[in-house]
Amino acid sequence: MAFQGSDKYYLNPELELIVNMALQMDKPLLLTGEPGTGKTQLAFEISRSLQMPLEVLRAKSTIKGEEVCYVQDTVLRLNDARFGTENTGRDVNNFFDYVVWGPIGRAFRSPERVVLLLDEIDKTESDVQDNLLDVLDEKQFTIREVNQVVQATHPPLIIITSNAKRELSDPFLRRCFCHHLAFPDRSEMVEIVRLHYPEIDDTLLDTALGLFYELRAAGFEKAPATSELLDWLQALENSGLKPGVPDKIPFIGSLLKRSEDLLAYRRSGLQSRRRQW
Fold first, then answer.
1. Residues 229, 230, 235, 240: is their CA dihedral positive or negative?
2. In the structure, what pLDDT confidence band is assigned to residue 129 with cuts at 50, 70 and 90?
3. Residues 6+ apart with CB under 8 A from 151
4. Radius of gyration of the chain measured on its C-alpha atoms
5. CA distance 168 to 122
6. Residue 255 covered by a domain
């Protein structure tokens, strides 16, 4: 089993090598890079291409390490103890009737190998990351209430993404293969765009990429990324705009999303410059 890219995901040779090494060695793969470079999408495309189920944890600052494995629905259990469980199929004395499995719990208990995506792990507190160390390394966790170990039936392919909002601990990093997704250069971006829009007009693509990379170099707080470029190109194609008609950059809100950047764009003079659309 190997991932070689897909009809929607451009995979450069270096990334292909490390993805498939993580598949072979059952080692977590930590992907870093600016938003919009395809970190999260990689997990979805591996799942789709290799027909592996996908479990996703969208990390947030309030999450606790245990709840990504399981939680007990104590409110439901207390309610059943008070009012009875007739016609519910639950037994108030059976702990597992009240367990809600988290993404890791579902991935470890799956009867087939899955892709487990821990998205934007840098949003979590350091103690949460530390709590996950042994779980991810040993592919098991303990249910404290009944002192029962849940061991992964089939070790999942673990994809972890980080936007570097917060530094990850050295012990966490040691347990992962790490790969930084650099922003695509122009030639790679052509390959990416053509996967999504194989019939795109060459002149339109060349003009659009020139403007796109000019905006990225202009120093905006949130420079447009690949996902913004793809949305922008779709808007251009849907509108029927073609190079040759002088105008300002159309659909600028598809590329620049923050108010400060839009204001800076208007002040910069880029808006007033004549563009060949």
1. positive
2. confident
3. 108, 139, 140
4. 23
5. 7
6. yes
Host domain of residue 172: 13-180
Average pLDDT over residues 196-220: 90
- Would you say residue 241 has pLDDT above 90? no
**AA letter at 194:** R
Reading phi first (left if > 0) and then psi (alpha if -120 to 50, else beta), residue 168 is in beta
Give the C-alpha distances (Å, rounded to integers) separating 105 from 56, 67, 96, 139, 149.
Answer: 11, 9, 13, 10, 11
pLDDT digits (tens, 9 = 90+) for 56-73: 999 887 787 788 999 999
CB neighbour list of residue 160: distance below 8 Å, 6 or more residues apart: 28, 29, 30, 31, 117, 118, 121, 176
Same domain, 117 and 160: yes
Contact 196, 230 (CB under 8 A): yes
User: Which residue, 133, 151, 180, sits at the end of a domain?
Assistant: 180
Q: How many CB atoms lie within 10 A of CB 23?
A: 19
What is the domain count for the chain?
2
Tokens of 190: 């052509």
**Residue indicated by tokens 């039936």:** 153
User: 174 and 141 in one domain?
Assistant: yes
Residue 97 domain-assigned?
A: yes
Residues 66 and 192 in one domain: no
Within-domain flag for 4: no
